[in-house]
Amino acid sequence: MDQNNFDGIIKRSLAIREKYHGLERQHHGTEWTLEEDALAYLTDAGLVGRDIMSHQKRWLKKDSAVELEHKLGENIWWLIVLADRTGIDIKEALDQFLTKTEKLF
Question: What's the CA gap between 80 and 64, in Å, rounded?
Answer without folding.
Answer: 24
